[in-house]
Specification:
This protein is an alpha/beta fold. It has helices at residues 3-14, 51-58, 88-95, 114-121, 132-138, 140-148, 178-190, 198-204, 271-281, 293-301, and strands at 28-33, 36-42, 71-74, 99-102, 125-127, 152-159, 164-166, 193-196, 219-223, 243-247, 260-264, 286-289, 307-312, 321-322, 329-337, 340-347. The longest helix is centred in the middle third of the chain and has 13 residues, at 178-190.
Length: 350
């Protein structure tokens, strides 16, 4: 079996941590002795053990003596610093594993090649760049956050077959089917925040929760430049979940609204960049932008998007608000969700 085979297993394991490990990246690890996997693990929860110790600890007692003759595969460079947990590179050295195969280096400033250097200095044979492209896709939120100092931005919308996103009367009208809605709620558990604009908040009164799936609830974000949402009986302002309102007006805040935070924004000067900078400072690595059309187009026009997920339903409207048109887009994936078509694009310039 090849390096690629075992690294793919690392990536499959790592994917199980998405939604639970941010702001850390999802990472998987596999320990192999003579083409037999004797241990494996992944980073399961932020603040808890990383993939490498989970893999090492999974090795059965009768196989422990094989570690000194085994190869450790890991999808990200082992850490070399003390954080929430001790350095994984130190544990690997202490365990006596002689070979380590890594998919991708870690751009985090406290690692950034130091883990690899520490392993090699201890006499460990290190191989890198095995399935690096696939590993980087899995870690795209983490990489964007550290390399571009902003969250990874996912645009999401549903459109009719003739490219309308909403009715002109601004009344809520479902386009995607129930399976697409459930998938959307799963996505919400995988990202740290979800953003809508004023018009969507008023027209749809969304909850922006993952109530159709099991997992973490995203941080709710809403842009309310002129304070039009204040004192409205909206789900977003119900104080049930942490919610951030970006506005230029001074709100009449209720002292009991512990989950509601108002952040002042200068809308005359790059408001989206200000919002993303705030989220970066809060260690928010990913945001789903769910509309409406004006907000989605503002991200597209500013080229502040990384991925777009578009549901197209087999229905036709005589008129409506035109769906956004992506520029610099590359087709990444296309699949059927019952009678809907899900198309995922990535930004060619990112």
């Amino acid at each position: 079996m090849t390096h690629t085979f075992f690294m793919q297993r690392c990536l499959d394991l790592a994917a199980q941590g998405i939604g639970n490990v941010a702001p850390n990246p999802p990472v998987g690890a596999v320990i192999v002795y003579q083409n037999r996997i004797i241990g494996e693990g992944y980073h399961q929860q932020y603040g808890q053990a990383h993939a490498e110790p989970n893999a090492i600890n999974s090795v059965l007692p009768q196989d422990k003596h094989l570690l000194s003759q085994s190869t450790l595969y890991v999808s990200l460079e082992p850490c070399s610093h003390f954080g929430k947990t001790p350095p994984c590179s130190d544990l690997i050295i202490k365990t006596g594993i002689p070979k380590v195969v890594i998919a991708s280096p870690d751009p985090f400033e406290l690692v950034n090649g130091q883990g690899i250097e520490k392993l090699r200095a201890a006499g460990i044979e290190v191989t890198i760049d095995i399935l690096q492209t696939e590993a980087n896709w899995l870690m795209r939120r983490f990489l964007t956050y550290h390399q571009q100092q902003r969250p990874y931005i996912i645009l999401k919308w549903a459109q009719t077959a003739n490219h309308f996103i909403a009715p002109t009367n601004k009344q809520q009208q479902w386009i995607s089917n129930s399976f697409a809605k459930m998938l959307t709620h799963r996505w919400r558990t995988e990202e740290q925040a979800i953003l809508v604009g004023t018009n969507t908040a008023l027209a749809d009164n969304p909850q922006l929760t993952a109530r159709l799936w099991i997992g973490k609830q995203p941080l709710r974000l809403v842009i309310d430049r002129y304070g039009r949402l204040q004192n409205k009986p909206l789900h977003l302002l119900d104080n049930s979940l942490p919610t951030v309102v970006f506005t230029q007006t001074h709100p009449n805040q209720n002292v009991n609204q512990a989950n509601l935070q108002y952040i002042p924004i200068n809308f005359e000067h790059q408001p989206l960049q200000q919002i993303l900078h705030f989220l970066y400072q809060q260690k928010i690595q990913s945001v789903i932008v769910e509309g409406g059309a004006a907000l989605l187009n503002s991200f597209i026009d500013a080229n502040l998007w990384d991925e777009a997920r578009v549901f197209t339903a087999p229905i036709y409207w005589d008129n409506g608000l035109t769906a956004p048109l992506l520029s610099n887009a590359k087709l990444h994936q296309k699949q059927k969700i019952d009678d809907n078509c899900l198309t995922i694009f990535t930004n060619l310039q990112k």
